[in-house]
Design a protein that fits this description.
With 271 residues, the protein is of the alpha+beta class. The chain has two domains: 4-124, N-terminal domain of MutM-like DNA repair proteins (Alpha-Beta Barrel); 142-265, Helicase, Ruva Protein, domain 3. The protein has helices spanning 4-18, 39-44, 142-149, 156-160, 171-181, 194-213, and strands at residues 23-28, 52-56, 59-63, 68-72, 78-83, 92-98, 102-107, 114-118, 254-258, 261-265. Helix 5 packs across helix 6 (194-213).
Length: 271
Amino acid sequence: MPELPEVETTRRGVAPHVLDRLIVRVAVRESRLRWPVPDALAEELPGKRFTSVGRRAKYLLFDCGSGVLLVHLGMSGSLRITPENEPPGKHAHVDILFDSGKTLRYTDPRKFGSMLWHPAGLGEHPLLQGLGPEPLGDEFGGALLHGVSRGRKTAVKNLIMDSRVVAGVGNIYACEALFLAGIHPARACGRISAARYEKLAESIRLVLGEAIRAGGTSLRDFTGGDGRPGYFKHQLNVYGREGEDCVRCSSGLRELRLGQRSTVFCPSCQR
């Protein structure tokens, strides 16, 4: 699944091609995504321009003043900039055509993603209500994690993957951040000190920032908005490396399941 760095990479890739360009037409070939693509999308967007392209957690937000297009890439979705005359592939479900002759194309083999039109203020949208702070924003830090964890027995990995606590820290980057911080992913979150949470928050910001600079992590289907793969997979310390040697101590990396997710860690470096 595309995680925060992949979504941010997509945002940065497509924004220069769609900002302030006149939308000429919207073609919906398949409306049966996670939620049905609303008819209002094809009715409202033509004649408008996107004035900003933002991101909240793993949602892309295309604002045109009178409303916002919310896009979630689901398990296998992607947004690409293509020439207007490029034939759509089998899973190319939605095209937004611009006066520049370019198309913003949404492709999703599994159809778990979504494209929704929201005419009101974004604060009112139920998908965005209740989300925690952005992990790269000023509101996020070790003090926040330490505060929300008091008295709780849940595994720390599950805590940082809870979007109500912090928005957008997915499985890959949770594993990597916990390794950098030296914290065992199954440790009870309420038994971690404030100092260690400061280290963990710093590690989350570091690993997400590096992944964005590398263009995301290409696992399975992901490529960025320009069609090129991300390269952060070459920097992964633990994720997907169960049974291999730890890059720090050469101990064998182990795998366990937390929240039904594969979790790889070093039994020597992470306590």
